[in-house]
Amino acid sequence: MEFGLSLGSNLGDREAHLRAARERLLATADATLLAASSLYETEPVGVQEKYIEMKFVNAVLIIDSEESAEDWLPWLNEIESELGRVRGDDKNAPRPIDIDILYAGDRCIGSRGTDEEQVDGNLIVPHPRWTQRRFVIEPLAEVRGELILPNQSKTVAELLALQEDAPLVKLDVDWRSESEWINEEQDSGIRGVSVVCPSCHEAFEVPCPALAEVPCDIDYDCEICCRPMRVGLSEADGEIVGQAYGIED
After folding, report:
1. Which of 6, 72, 121, 240 has the fewest CB within 10 Å, making it most exposed?
2. pTM for the full model?
3. How far is the C-alpha of 2 from the C-alpha of 68, rounded, in Å?
């Protein structure tokens, strides 16, 4: 069954949190990645005035899984907890990660649906407010524009065209997880790029993308001292070369 998942973060290293969530999601049960949207920076919605400047980074993942939405809900909650989310009275408080099920195949679950199964908790699928949120519709339209979700008569792309607010800011960031980099490297036969850590000055290899994707920057943790770094990749004489720079924690 195909699932649409909405991911968001507005606390700490937002891109790193999304990348870590993606890593954990793809390691869960029998999940297979079908598509991933770009990352978008978005304004917070419904937050207290003191949080109004804490922008989100949002994205959508499309996965395939034989497990049910009811099975996925506690797994998503566990991933959120692992990445530091603490639930309190303010449901719109800043959080390192937020993961919602947008849809689960053609199922309807909860107060808006017709599914006869007993559903524990507050699971409602499709997500009850997805059509009101550009930060959901625009990333979803990028990867599933022609999809018509249950209880809707318009495609995702048509619903996006009806939105009156401004388009989102798309970030030029490759947010593939580390395991995806490694798998792509193994599948393509492309070796890693040797760099020297600016903190411990030890040399090691970082996974490198296809030549067509450079120049680009990759945020990576040193395999020796675990300090964060930014690796700038470029092309020289048909090969990819890298230079590592220190970044703040």
Report:
1. 121
2. 0.71
3. 10
